[in-house]
Amino acid sequence: MNEEIERSIIAIMLNKPADVNLVNVNAEWFAVNDYQAIYKAINELAESEPSLMAIYGKASKHLVNLSFSDFNAIKSEVLTDSNLGTLVNNLHKLALDREMSTNIMEWQKSPFKDNEEKLLETLRKMQDLEDRSDNGDMAEEFDELIDSFDHPRPTGIKTYPQVDTFVSGGLYGGMLFTIGARPSVGETAFSLNLAYEATKIDPKLHVDYFTLEMNKREMLNRLISRNTGISSTALRDPASLSPILKKLVMQSVDYFKSRQIRVFDKTLNLNQILSVIRKNAAKAKPNEYLAIVDYIGLVNVSGNQDRYEKVGEITRQLKITANEFNVPIIALSQLNRSVEQRQDKTPLLSDLRESGSVEQDSNVVGFLHKPYDSQDVVQLDIAKNREGRLGHVNFAFSGKSMKFIEVDTDDVHE
Q1: For the whole model, what pTM was predicted?
Q2: What tens digit of pLDDT does each residue of 134-145 get?
Q3: Catalytic entry in 213, 340, 359, 406
Q4: What percent of the chain has pLDDT over 90?
Q5: What distance in Å separates the CA atoms of residue 407 and residue 5, rounded to the nearest whole number?
Q6: Which residues, other chains included, contact 408 with Cβ-Cβ below 8 Å and sequence gap of 6+?
Q7: Residue 330: is its pLDDT beyond 90?
Q8: What is the DSSP string of 368-404?
Q9: Mutual orientation of helices 243-257 and 216-228 as an angle, nearest 10°?
């Protein structure tokens, strides 16, 4: 049974090496040394879309019983990757069973505290894995709903009060929140403001920000600008700052060191992004993880599909991951030029660029635009909302300090 599961996983990954990034696998879970060696080779080479020969060459020095013809035979066992998650889950269970057997033997030989703690740790890991398994049972959800009558629970990750009202109290688990805008409206700055506000409210919140347009230093400059009011342009030449401003920057650096904001500027491939989200979301407590992708039009997807299909794959996988790990994901998207050619420049869902799947897969779709002549007012228009109402929130925006501030408004429609 164990070898059959391991061989099936390897067969899938030999056919689609990029699938290695869709699941969290520890190479040590493989009991068969040859399969473990193959997995490690695929994991190292996956982003280069390796050939079968390249994988064999990488793994060959660690192989004991498998030849290149065996590789061909395994690959020919064509399997769909739709059950890869289940196979990996079973692989993990079997690995924990072996770990438990070893720990029990060690404890029987030497029944002391260290070995007892190893046993308890393995039990905890087995329980965590069981909790993540989905058998369709709703009993826990029923009990949790009834219990919440008398014991209120956090409804999501808080950002801006009015935005929270629209999204049922906060950014909730399973949410794909797509924010669309035309260039130069401040889309990146707005998403950074969401991260800033959320981590200010909850310092324990972990934010993974995937930037495909800027580097880490540019993102840090924008965060410090938001925190201090110092222009991000001035931060490009910090040596020219006055002593007082330098002190402010140092205080801001210390502030962000105390927050859990990670910026990824070299993670450009969909599978890489999903791998990071899965790894970090799996470790986070409820309402303590948020991922932001800036922006989906620049995410690379392997294969020969047209861009329409690739964008569909991006939003589908982001939504699946949000559901699987019960975390919110914010995805930024560009709008078509057609919005600029209309007399009424309020964005519509049909203005979402490249794919109708963006609208279909998103729980919430919001558009940033400037509805008035004033360049200092930016509006977030909630055009789709599965869990709440439609309407808009007005923000005062300072491009110099990258700061969005909510402006009170009563113009909300159901």
Answers
A1: 0.66
A2: 556 667 667 767
A3: 213
A4: 34
A5: 56
A6: none
A7: yes
A8: EE--SS-TTEEEEEEEEETTS--EEEEEEEETTTTEE
A9: 110
Residue 320, pLDDT above cutoff 50? yes
CB 255 within 8 A of CB 225: no
The larger pLDDT score, comparing residue 140 to residue 11, is at 11
Determine which helix (DSSP H) or strand (DSSP E) holds 330, and give its type and residue range.
strand 329-334
**Cα Rg, the chain, nearest whole Å:** 24
pLDDT of the residue at 119: 82
Lateral strand order in the sheet of 289-294: 260-264, 206-211, 289-294, 329-334, 176-181, 364-369, 377-385, 391-398, 403-407
Rounded Cα distance between 222 and 400, Å, is: 10
User: How far apart are the C-alpha atoms of 41 and 59, rounded to whole Å?
Assistant: 5
Q: Which helix (H) or strand (E) holds 54?
A: helix 52-59
Q: Which amino acid is at 78?
A: V
DSSP 109-164: HS-SHHHHHHHHHHHHHHHHHHHH------HHHHHHHHHTTTS----SB---HHHH
Q: In the annotation, is 213 catalytic?
A: yes
Tokens at 406, concatenated: 């909510």
11 within 8 A of 77, measured Cβ to Cβ? yes
In DSSP terms, which residues pair with 211 in a beta bridge? 294
Answer yes or no: are the C-beta atoms of 208 and 278 closer than 8 Å: no
List the helix and strand counts (H, then E) for the chain: 15, 9
Pairwise CA distance, residues 355 & 308, whole Å: 5
Per-residue pLDDT for 410 more than 50?
no
Q: Is the pLDDT of residue 412 over 80?
A: no
DSSP class of residue 304?
S
- 170's torsion region: left (phi>0), alpha (psi -120 to 50) or beta? left
Tokens of 371: 């509805």
Q: Which two tokens stand for residue 249?
A: 């920057």
